[in-house]
Design goal:
CATH superfamily of one domain in chain C: P-loop containing nucleotide triphosphate hydrolases
CATH topology of the largest domain in chain A: Rossmann fold
Shape of chain C: globular
Distance between the termini of chain C: 36 Å
Number of helices of chain A: 13
CATH superfamily of the largest domain in chain A: Response regulator
Distance between the termini of chain A: 80 Å
Oligomer: heterotrimer
Strand order of the largest sheet of chain C: 6-7-8-3-9-10
CATH class of one domain in chain C: Alpha Beta
Order of helices and strands of chain C: EEEHEEHEHHHHEHEHEEHH
CATH topology of one domain in chain C: Rossmann fold
Strand content of chain C: 25-35%
CATH architecture of one domain in chain C: 3-Layer(aba) Sandwich
Order of helices and strands of chain A: HEHEEHEHEEHEHEHEHEHEHHHEEHEEE
Chains: A alpha/beta, B mainly alpha, C alpha/beta
Number of strands of chain C: 10
CATH class of the largest domain in chain A: Alpha Beta
Strand order of the largest sheet of chain A: 8-7-9-10-11-15-16
Radius of gyration of chain A: 24 Å
């Protein structure tokens, strides 16, 4: 009898062990695929490749800290990178592949607003939650009804603060020339900048959009300089475009201030491409990320990027990093992988961590939908080819 | 403002002409359209970047070396990629599209996607009669038009040049005069690629260098030879000047888009009324 | 023997266009090959200059086998071809055309002497020397391309239907030009359809049909032969 009892217990014990071990097995990390779409080739690729690397670095950093935990289940992130080839057809192909072949439920990217718009119908229809990197604020980029589209920030929300800073620092400036690339984001920015310039008592003497991919700005600048502006607002753009305009404007004899209420993607490129002698009296919503004045999380990101890619952290890396990080925070806040639930929780988040400090969700006023992270952003100057951090501004 | 914009147009024209000359040389000697010519131009810019920034060479010396390196690469391309398809337009097109991908991605892997720049030593400005021109741009104009003169001399005055003209008119009969077609094709490819490299190097100095800069150059180069006449050297020069002036002057008085519109308007007009281009003749 | 082909064959893809031809040309005496359109006459000449490659057989020139040589090497040995349809470089001047004929000659003095000789032979070319070759009349173009061939100072000239499209009076002139050339110790291999001209200019000849030599020998006897009568003289 005893033997039977013993046997019974042994079998029970085994079953217990198996169940428990199966349980712990189930508790082991699963993989969560997250798509990342950026321009790796084509005219928009310059600098934007950093965003992709930033996403990869952030994924490593999050995984190292234990990944994402949803209802006790641990998930490690696997980034599925896709090149959008800087073109609408390229991004549509990339989006279709991610959504229907890889079957991802979450996507980060891209940067260029026009490309983002080309992708939105696909992700919205498939209920794929997407956090785009940056954005300018064209009405078509972000509007009510886009339930699954979020953004790490929208440039137009910061234009007013940058003009505040400008008129305070340059009280004598009267005439402004405003430019930007001829694409939906650039158009939106120039429109907002014109309004803000006039609201700040400046006279807009010149405003023109240059075609995507322009290298020779002489014709446009020749025309602008004939209006004798005191200052140039360079609108949105990437470092090579800014550098081209700066170099050529200086060559044509413009010595006044130039600024952009926007990030450059890689501010170190500007003195490199425009020349140190020409890189003076310029400011951007961008930062020398090596500066000791940066928050400690920036230092961590720098470490991560330099370990993985052997390069210094750029603003582009940071932008990619934040897109993944914000998305992950939303998933954890919702404690769900259901994109509808995550979206609902995300738009109500009062606090969301970013590289430059605590941010919050905003956008209801500007876009009719609370899908935009509003956060402090660094303002930096270029003097004698050196980048110097001024302060964080938050609208 | 008009003088300033004409000077800008000359700078652009010089760059376009150098690219178009190479395309037109290759087209007339080998009977193919080399679509990867833009990538050859990009390689010239990168060679220049490495020679200037990493090897620290003198600017003009670096241009010379970059032209020779890329010209040498052209000789290899001719021998191993294009010679078997001489005169076979469709196959050469496929080969050159493959080359575009190969060269672009090779540079992307080696040098990365970040645009690069190098400073030329001519950073001064010249200001005459209210017109400002950087020394850099003056160098571009003089190098470009200097090379055009060199090419004209070469074609008119040397045996090799005359052989090129002969091949462009009748390849088979040219061979019957004892002209070594392979050798002349090599030389044409060398010159064409070297010119593209110089153009790329100059653009690199003015603007920046990126693996994707070639597409723009190819587009302009093809537009120029359609405008000027396929296979015509003088046509490439005139076409380049015209397109450069359009791109330099029109945006100042209108918009950049209008410049593109007028440029292509010209091309359509030319094709309607003189399908061979301004100075072209029928091309077999 | 100046030029000799031994059983040469040429294939275009799978078709045999030259089916084993033996031809001999000496310096003295113009040799003609007559044959109708499509008999393979032009292809045969192109095989000699290396413009088309041989399938089999041998070509000997001045006791040297030239089978495997590229075109420009063959030209260098002293063979010149006056192509069918004349084909001057149409957008170059007459002078530039002639100079290209002496492409392989490096010595300027020799080139100038040869030029003087050509202008002596064809005074009309001197008058037209600055004109674009494409604007000359057919007869003038024929003089030009013969002059161009002579500029290379060849040991043999191959002529591919020089009479094609020319007026009878010009053909007369051509006959005396060809005789003059042969008198100057330059071998001539003439390929023609014009039986009348062939009879005037040469003593010995071949008849080619469908890529084969069907008859050879004294030109007058050839012309009297049924085959030729039927094929060329239409009787």
């Amino acid at each position: 009898m005893n033997k039977i009892k013993l046997g019974f217990f042994v079998v029970l014990g085994f079953m217990f062990v198996i169940t428990v071990s199966q349980n712990t097995y189930a508790q082991e990390a699963k993989t969560l695929k997250i798509g990342a779409v950026f321009a790796l080739t084509g005219p928009a690729a310059a600098g934007i490749k950093d965003c992709m690397d930033g996403v990869q670095a952030a994924a490593d950093w999050i995984n190292k800290k234990g990944g994402i935990t949803v209802k006790g289940q641990q998930y490690l992130i696997e980034v599925v990178p896709e090149d959008n080839k800087s073109a609408p057809d390229g991004i549509v192909a990339a989006a279709n592949k991610l959504v229907y072949k890889d079957e991802v439920k979450f996507i980060v990217g891209p940067v260029v607003p026009g490309l983002s718009m080309a992708m939105t119908p696909i992700t919205e229809k498939a209920k794929v939650l997407r956090c785009k990197v940056n954005g300018t604020g064209n009405k078509a980029e972000m509007k009510p009804g886009m339930l699954y589209t979020f953004s790490t920030f929208m440039e137009i929300q910061y234009v007013r603060s940058v003009y505040d800073y400008f008129v305070k620092s340059y009280p004598n400036a009267k005439k402004i020339a405003i430019t930007g690339p001829d694409e939906p984001g650039g158009q939106a920015m120039v429109a907002v900048a014109k309004k803000e310039a006039e609201a700040h008592g400046l006279k807009v003497v010149f405003s023109e959009l240059y075609p995507f991919g322009t290298q020779d700005f002489y014709p446009m600048l020749t025309k602008a300089m004939a209006q004798k502006p005191d200052v140039f607002d360079l609108g949105v753009g990437i470092a090579p475009w800014y550098a081209g305009i700066i170099k050529q404007a200086r060559e044509l004899g413009f010595t006044g201030p130039m600024f952009a209420p926007s990030a450059t993607g890689n501010i170190y490129l500007i003195p490199m491409l425009a020349g140190k002698d020409f890189s003076y009296d310029i400011f951007f919503l961008d930062a020398d990320l090596k500066s000791p004045k940066m928050p400690s999380i920036v230092k961590e990101a720098r470490q991560q990027v330099s370990n993985k890619f052997g390069v210094d952290l750029t603003f582009g890396h940071g932008a990619g990093w934040e897109s993944l990080w914000c998305l992950v925070q939303a998933i954890e806040a919702a404690q769900s992988l259901d994109t509808i639930k995550v979206a609902k929780v995300w738009e109500k988040m009062k606090s969301i961590e970013t590289l430059y400090g605590e941010g919050t969700m905003s956008g209801l006023k500007d876009f009719g939908i609370n899908h935009v992270v509003l956060k402090p952003r660094p303002l930096s100057r270029l003097e004698k080819g050196e980048i110097e951090f001024i302060k964080f501004i938050s609208p | 403002m008009i003088t300033q914009s004409i000077l800008n147009g000359l700078v652009l024209g010089g760059i376009y002409i150098l690219v178009a000359l190479g395309l037109t040389l290759i087209l007339s000697i080998m009977g193919i359209v080399q679509l990867a010519h833009g990538e050859v131009y990009m390689l010239g810019a990168y060679a220049m970047y490495y020679l200037c920034v990493h090897a620290g060479l003198n600017f003009l010396l670096a241009i010379l070396i970059s032209a020779f390196l890329v010209g040498g690469l052209g000789v290899l391309l001719e021998k191993y990629f294009f010679r078997p398809f001489r005169g076979k337009m469709e196959r050469a097109l496929i080969i050159s599209i493959g080359l575009i991908l190969l060269l672009q991605n090779a540079v992307l892997v080696i040098a990365g996607g970040t645009p690069r720049a190098f400073a030329s030593p001519f950073s001064g400005m010249i200001s005459v009669l209210g017109v400002t021109l950087s020394l850099e741009r003056l160098i571009v104009i003089s190098v470009a038009f200097g090379l055009v003169l060199v090419l004209f001399f070469l074609i008119k005055m040397t045996k090799v040049g005359q052989a090129m003209v002969a091949i462009s008119q009748d390849r088979e009969v040219a061979a019957l005069q004892g002209i070594n077609i392979d050798r002349i094709s090599s030389i044409a490819m060398f010159l064409g690629c070297a010119f593209a490299a110089v153009s790329g190097a100059l653009v690199g100095a003015l603007f920046s260098v990126s693996p994707f800069m070639g597409g723009f150059a190819l587009m302009k180069g093809i537009a120029v030879i359609i405008l000027g006449g396929m296979g015509s050297i003088l046509g490439a020069v005139l076409g380049g000047l015209l397109l450069g002036l359009i791109d330099g002057v029109v945006p100042v008085y209108s918009t950049t888009h209008m410049a593109g519109l007028i440029g292509f308007g010209f091309i359509i007009l030319i094709l309607l009324f003189k399908p061979q281009g301004m100075l072209g003749r029928e091309f077999e | 023997m100046l030029l000799q082909t031994k059983n040469i064959k040429v294939h275009f893809a799978t078709a045999e266009v030259i089916k084993g031809i033996n031809v001999e040309v000496a310096t003295k005496g113009v040799v003609s090959i007559i044959g109708s359109n499509g008999a393979g006459k032009s292809t045969f000449l192109k095989a000699i200059t290396g413009s088309v490659s041989l399938h089999s057989g041998e070509i000997w020139f001045l006791r040297k086998n030239i089978n495997a040589l590229p075109v420009h090497e063959i030209i260098k040995l002293g063979i010149a071809l006056v192509p069918e349809g004349r084909r001057p470089f149409p957008y170059m001047s007459v002078l530039a055309n002639l100079k290209l004929g002496a492409y392989l000659q490096k010595d300027k003095r020799i080139i100038n002497r040869a030029l003087a000789d050509i202008f002596d032979r064809f005074p009309i070319l001197w008058k037209r020397r600055k004109q674009q070759a494409g604007t000359l009349s057919g007869g003038e173009q024929q003089m030009l391309v013969i002059g161009r061939a002579l500029m290379s100072m060849p040991k043999i000239i191959l002529m591919d239907e020089p009479s094609l499209g020319l007026a009878p009076i010009v053909i007369e002139e051509l006959v005396s030009i060809i005789k003059d050339i042969n008198r100057d110790e330059i071998g001539v291999l003439l390929v023609e359809q014009n039986a009348n001209m062939v009879t005037q200019v040469s003593e010995r000849g071949y008849v080619m049909e469908m890529g084969k030599i069907v008859l050879k020998g004294d030109i007058k006897k050839l012309m009297a032969h049924d085959v030729v009568q039927r094929a060329f003289l239409g009787t």
